[in-house]
Amino acid sequence: MRTSARPTPAPDRPQADQGPRTRPPVWLTATAVACVLAVIRIAVVAFSPYSTAVGLFDDDAFYYFGVAGHIAAGDGSTFNGLDPTNGYHPLWLLILVPVFSITNGKAALVAVTLVSSVLAIASGRQIDRIGVLTGRPVVVTLCAAPLLVVGAAGPSFWYSGMETGLLLFALLWLAATYLRTDGFTAPTFGTTAARNAGVLMAVAVLARLDTVFPMAVLGVVTVVTWVRLGRPWLKLTLWLAAPPAIALAAYLAINQALFHTPLPVSGQAKALGGGGFNADTIGQFLTSPVLFGQSTYLGAIGIVVVIGALAARATGSLGLAARFGTIVLTGGALTVGYYAFTSSWQLWPWYFSSAPLAIVLAGPALVDKWANWVPVRRIAALGLVLLVVAAVGANAVRSGKGGVARSAFIEAGPAVAAQIDALAPAGEPIAMGDRAGSVGYHLHRPVVHLEGLVNSADYLDALKNGTVHQFLASRGVALYARGDNDPGTPDPDNPGCVRFTEPQQGGGTKVFIVVCDKDLLLTTPVADGTSYRVWAYRANLNR
Question: Model's pTM, two decimal places?
Answer without folding.
Answer: 0.93
